[in-house]
Amino acid sequence: MKEIMKTENIKLVIFDWAGTTIDYGCFAPISAFIKAFKACGVDLTPQQARGPMGLHKQDHIRSLFQLEEIAAQWESLHQRAWTEQDVKHIYETFMPLQIEEAKLFTDLVPGLCETISILREQGIKIGSTTGYPRIVAEPVLEAARAQGYAPDFSMCADEVPAGRPAPWMIYRNMEALSVFPPSAVVKVGDTVPDIEAGLNAGTWTVGLTQTGSEVGLTVAEFEALSDEQKADLLATAETKLKNAGAHFVIPTLEGLPGIIDELNEREN
Fold first, then answer.
1. Is the distance from CB of 136 to CB of 169 less than 8 angstroms?
2. Residue 22 and residue 200: Cα distance in Å, rounded?
3. How confident is the model at residue 210 (pLDDT cuts 50, 70, 90)?
4. Which has the closest alpha carbon to 218: 16, 17, 28, 15?
5. Confidence of residue 19 (pLDDT cuts 50, 70, 90)
6. In 38-189, where do the E strands start and end?
7. Mean pLDDT estimate for the chain
8. Residue 253's CB: how many other CB atoms inside 10 A?
9. Which of 11, 16, 187, 190 is catalytic?
10. Is cis: bond before 29, omega within 30 of 0?
């Protein structure tokens, strides 16, 4: 049972990027991971590539190598077990691919700007964290600004000692925006490492399902499903994020202002 924190009025909301504020369905990283492993002779399925989503990308590659079927492919092809040097090599192959793929998936998720506007009207600051390194994130930030979304601060995984689930990117947002204690902060994301990072930082956590990596569909693909199929996918994603410890789980960002109101109305 999750501990009920003493609640301050919410002063800062920190958003993830792909699957939360941009790139509905979280496709940019998946394509780059598949291409990077393919360049080394290993075939990844989209489902495999999505598994460790939310981690620093080098940690993500290491986690993929730890899958039995991926390790077996590597050993069969190279006649040896994978090493940390192989992780580094695939990461170096991945990086230029990721830069180009990320530029192709920069559309804001529906309802983001409306949600941000509601939060800003309440004086809430907007932060952001991402598993992308800065060289990948900067063109994404520029594209988001051109569409009307500009967080007050952004932090990338290569700018802290460790990416998610470590809390350092969240703390850097809090420091830069002069917000404390952690109970005045809400972390929003679509992956388990997002939730874990928020919990490790002591903040409130909100998981997103419909737009994120756990569902992993475009707007058109999701809308083409039957109501029963939609409900099943959302329920599966919700269960995974709740099991990770999320305080709240919602399908889309439209539900976020209501959660902020609920937190602000709780007795301190």
1. no
2. 24
3. very high
4. 28
5. very high
6. 125-130, 153-156, 185-189
7. 94
8. 25
9. 16
10. no
Active site residue 57: yes
10 Å Cβ neighbour count for 218?
Answer: 12
Instruction: Using the structure block, give the residue that is written with the tokens 């099991």.
Output: 243
User: CA 175 to CA 139: how far, in whole Å?
Assistant: 24
In which residue are the tokens 């040896």 written? 80
* pLDDT of the residue at 57: 86
* Residue 7: predicted pLDDT: 60
| Inter-residue contact 157 to 131 (CB < 8 Å) | yes
Instruction: Report CA torsion sign: 212, 218, 223, 228.
Output: negative
Amino acid at 69: E
**b/e per residue 37-70 (b: at least 16 CB within 10 A):** beeeebebeeebbbbbbbbbbbbbbbebbeeeeb
CA distance 222 to 214: 12
The answer to whether residue 16 is catalytic is yes
Helices then strands, counting H and E runs in the chain, come out as 12, 6
Active site residue: 6, 11, 43, 57, which one?
Answer: 57
* Residue 259 main-chain phi, psi, to 5 deg: -65, -40
